[in-house]
Amino acid sequence: MQARTLPVIAVIALLGACSKPPPQVLGTLEWDRITLPAPTAEKIVAIDVREGQQVAAGARLLQLDVTRTRSQLDAMQAQARQSSEALAELRAGPRSEQIAQARAQLSAVQAQAADARANFTRLRSLGERNLVAVADVDRARAAAGNADGQVRAAQAGLDELLHGTRSERIAQGEAAAVAAQAQAAVQSATLGKLDITAPRAGRVDSLPYKLGDQAPVGAALAILLVGDAPYARVYVPEPLRANVQPGQAAQVFVDGREGSLKGHVRMVRSEPVFTPYYALSGDDAARLSYLAEVVLDAPVALPAGIPVRVEFVGTARGQ
What residues does the YbhG-like alpha-helical hairpin domain cover (predicted)? Predict the structure, then answer.
């Protein structure tokens, strides 16, 4: 009886050896990263954290020198106040003293015009009798006309004051005041950004610059690793792509760690790429793959960058 079972066991063992293992893809473990850029090119005057430290949302990471930015803000706020006062002056219109002065000037030129007209009348009568030169009469006529013009100009100036400020000038003043206030608000926001704070809770991954450095605008001052759990960034070979979909369950194997971690596919890129050398496995002759992200279902304290292997649950075997 025992002799008969030996061939059966051998056949089962042979079939097990011939069956293919579930398809696996390779990649690295990553965390979501947040890069905090330098808002201005200022010197770093304080660093409040260290690399690897866990920080809460809103915690200050480092501080830049505020001297120049604060001075610019003071200047812009003063300009905004000046624009606001100029607008208030336009809305208030002319002072009563200006109107009284314009009326006095009108009375003065009216008196001068009356005297000039009277003088012209006398000289014209004398000129008709050839008692004065014709040139004197012409000069008197011109003086009377000039005096009448000054009266009209003074009257127009008084009318302008009485009508108040034009609506167009008030609109221009309002626009100038709004622009000045907006510039001051932008500078105030820039000043607030000189305190580099954590937008989310996470771990400080990198502080590229040291105390006293002056990073250029846009340079990364701090890099945070955030999120409840890490994710595996893997490369799906082209033959497996049709069977890997977002939301699909997966098993993640971490090098140096026993067992597997449960996860699910967060996304799969639609554009193919050439597989990196470290992710090549099996029959990857074509080296064409699709970048995918597999999020772990449970929080786990693992560093970024370590190699991982991923098996997709439900993927057809033998692909």
Answer: 74-187
